[in-house]
Amino acid sequence: MDKSTIAKLDAAPLEICGRVPAPWGLENIVLKADELEAFCKDPEGFAALKYRVTKEEYLKWVETGGTPRCGAKTSKGKRCRNLVSGGIQMSLERWLREEGAYCAVHGGLSSAEARLNR
Ligand SMILES: [Zn+2]
User: Fold this and answer.
1) What is the mean pLDDT of the chain?
2) How many domains is the chain partitioned into structurally?
3) Which terminus, N or C, of the chain has the lesser number of Cβ atoms within 10 Å?
4) CA 55 to ligand 1 center in whole angstroms
5) What's the gap in Å between 28 CA and the centre of ligand 1?
6) Neighbours of 108 (CB within 10 A)
7) Does 116 share its domain with 86?
8) Per-residue pLDDT at 35
9) How far is residue 18's CA from residue 36's CA, in Å, rounded to a whole number?
10) How does pLDDT run across 72-113, given as a tens digit for each residue?
11) Ligand 1 is a single-atom ion; what residues have CB below 5 A from it?
12) What's the gap in Å between 83 CA and the centre of ligand 1?
């Protein structure tokens, strides 16, 4: 897109939204005219940048449905990956905080306790 097109879009009474995957389906990101190209090139990378996380973190958040997984190691040395109590479809910020916490088996809160903490 050339500069005059961007300037025209910028001046017009438009709201341009990009749609990116989220645990609950799609999320809208309001785009400025000069962000369109970057968004079209890599919508997920752009979303990650907007949310101030790495693209990997963003994709993981979508992939897990916003549900944090237990980070404890099982007796076989593998990551447990049970659900961490406290909810599904968490906001990206909250999911990042809780991803890798412990499930009820590994000393995390039971779902009843987690509910009380909300
Ligand atoms: Zn666990």
Assistant:
1) 94
2) 2
3) C
4) 25
5) 34
6) 22
7) yes
8) 96
9) 9
10) 999 899 999 999 998 899 999 999 999 999 999 999 988 788
11) 70, 72, 80, 82, 103, 105-106
12) 7
